């Protein structure tokens, strides 16, 4: 690749720092940028338990990241993304939980903020660059002007699940310098460069505290019911429950462990059942985003991840006529298919796209 000016999203962790370091060593002009998303008006306690999350008051202090950029020897800027983040990510987060779904805010943040608002706002600030790079473990392959999003070479570090909504327009201007590397290699690289973050603990996704801090909903009591409709208890708000939850249900007297197996938002009910009720072999998803701009076919076979740490499972997929919805039948029943989470489709190591589970 010809020498270019590359904007690197710096989070303060070892991965993004290593990405900047690698690009600089390759001879590119590298500029570091941190997106500011913390809003002090948010009802979140400023406690230490959340200090290693993406959304935390501590992220507002960029002095350490600035020192890191200076150590690497690159220009550094902060980019204000607070309003866009609040509208796109936090409002969606609250809306989804209010409707009994469990959203994945990192997916929205990546497609709309980190790879959208951040580089756009940097341009608006007069920062000129050719490409935008991050420390994600994923790969992009270009063939005849088409850009393919692929998994990271190290399966244990792959982050393509969180990137599946990136468009062709975005992928053509993105670099993932760490895509072919493993974590140990990255830490060694940072250690050799004398970077203070070489052995820093990995950051946690989104928020580490009680989600009720973010939701800030008033109590709304409703029934906890069995699958046959029998009322067995009360809840104080459906947003406090997610599919597969077992602990903290306040239930006793059952012969086997009981789980949340469904949430009926219109009726304000939480549905309880045995673990066997959590297994399903069918799934529906909407709001589909296709990496190549369109689905590969009306019907096809692939593997699907129903959450980030899920082992992708074989399924047959049927796509709606407008390409916005899919129905999938898994070869084997899957545990805890959860409304609001992302279903990401793979063909080998290539990301086909993904959508939101219904």
What keywords describe this structure?
358 residues, alpha/beta, Rossmann fold, SH3 type barrels, Elongation Factor Tu (Ef-tu), domain 3, 3 domains, six-stranded antiparallel barrel, five-stranded parallel sheet, 30% strand, globular
Report on the structure:
- By secondary structure, the protein is an alpha/beta fold.
- The chain has helices at residues 14-25, 63-72, 82-98, 105-124, 168-171, 183-192, 212-215, and strands at residues 5-9, 29-36, 75-80, 131-133, 138-143, 146-151, 174-175, 222-226, 231-235, 259-264, 269-273, 279-290, 299-305, 313-319, 326-335, 342-347, 350-357.
- Strand 5 (138-143) and strand 6 (146-151) form a beta hairpin.
- Helix 3 (82-98) runs antiparallel to helix 4.
- It starts with a strand and ends with a strand.
- The model has no long low-confidence stretch (mean pLDDT 93).
Would you report the number of β strands? 17
* Strand/helix succession: EHEHEHHEEEHEHHEEEEEEEEEE
Q: Can you say what the CATH homologous superfamily of the largest domain is?
A: HUPs
> Could you say what the CATH topology of the largest domain is called?
Rossmann fold
Mean pLDDT: 93
Q: Determine the number of helices (DSSP H or I, runs of at least 4 residues).
A: 7
Question: In CATH's first tier, which class of the largest domain applies?
Answer: Alpha Beta
How do the strands line up in the largest sheet?
12-15-14-13-16-17
- CATH architecture assignment name of the largest domain: 3-Layer(aba) Sandwich
Our estimate of the beta-strand percent is 25-35%
Helix content: 10-25%
Structural class: alpha/beta
Low-confidence stretches: none
Biggest sheet, open or closed, and with what strands and sense?
6 strands, antiparallel, barrel
| End-to-end C-alpha gap | 42 Å
* Spatial extent as radius of gyration: 22 Å
> What global shape is seen?
globular
